[in-house]
Structures are given as structure tokens and as C-alpha cells.
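Write out this protein's structure.
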Amino acid sequence: MLTKDLIANVAAQTGMTKKRTEEMLTATTSVLVEQLLEGKAVQLQNFGTIEAKMRAARTVVHPKTGEKTIVPEKLQLSFRPTSSIKENLKNINL
């Protein structure tokens, strides 16, 4: 789903204008990013938790050459869906 599709769907469900919905979505994402940059987890009820976690440094091996390289530690976004979403995903046949 593209951002414009999300805006259109939310506007249709809430009765808000697309312009107002876009403003709300922009403000929401700004707050989410701000909180993540401060090292805080963001918990969205009935959806899940988004947080920045430190991924440990590790050694990887190039499959063709066998050369070992160290990948440094880095911050990585992590998403944990709620149990209800996990259950619903189990029942989807793609």
C-alpha cells in the first residue's frame, strides 16, 4: 500500500478530508521517528511495538571467496506485532 492509498482509506473510514488525514499522518510519523531517535519504544495498541535495537557485531564469510569480514554493530528497527495480529496472519493463505 502506498502512502496515498493509506491516506485515502483512513479518510474514507474517518470522514476526514484527505488533506487533514495527510497532515495527521505526517504528524504521527514525525512523533514516531522522534521517539525512536530518543531510544524509546513506541507501542501502538492493537498493532505492535516498534523499537530501535543494537545489532551486535558479527563475522560474515563471502560465499565465493571464503573471505571473512567483520560487520560492525548498528542500530536496527525491530517490530513485534500483537498476538492478535500474529494469530490472524496464521490464517492467511497466499
